[in-house]
Design a protein that fits this description.
The protein has 2 helices and 4 strands. It is α/β, with parallel strands linked by helices.
Length: about 110
């Protein structure tokens, strides 16, 4: 891939262990060094690390992973943290797995 023009190797930290990614980084460095003595083929290869950010999951709409509902402008949508609502979401209720949401938002704020 380096010969073909690869300039960046992207590592997605949402998948794989840190040990796996360390080996990939070593492989990129080794592959780059192979071309170090050839000024025509050599090019630096950057590493882009797509780090895993916070994930907030919602519950299932009407118990289905494919169901959809329409939300209406101005309507009230209750955010529930009780696991009893995990598979009972609809246009009025949305379950979240983020138990600290009440600590990081204020009543009436947009989320």
């Amino acid at each position: 891939m380096i010969k073909s023009g690869m300039k960046v190797a992207c590592l997605n930290f949402s998948h794989g262990t840190h040990e796996y990614h360390v080996e990939t980084i070593k492989n990129v460095h080794t592959a780059t060094e192979i071309f170090a003595s050839d000024p025509i083929l050599y090019r630096p290869v950057a590493l882009a690390l797509d780090t895993k950010g916070p994930e907030i999951r919602t519950g299932l709409i009407k118990g289905s992973s494919t169901a959809e509902v329409g939300l209406k402008m101005g309507a009230t949508l209750k955010i529930m943290l009780d696991n009893a609502y995990m598979k009972k979401c609809d246009e009025n209720i949305l379950w979240l797995d983020y138990k600290n949401i009440c600590k990081v938002t204020e009543v009436g704020s947009k989320i």
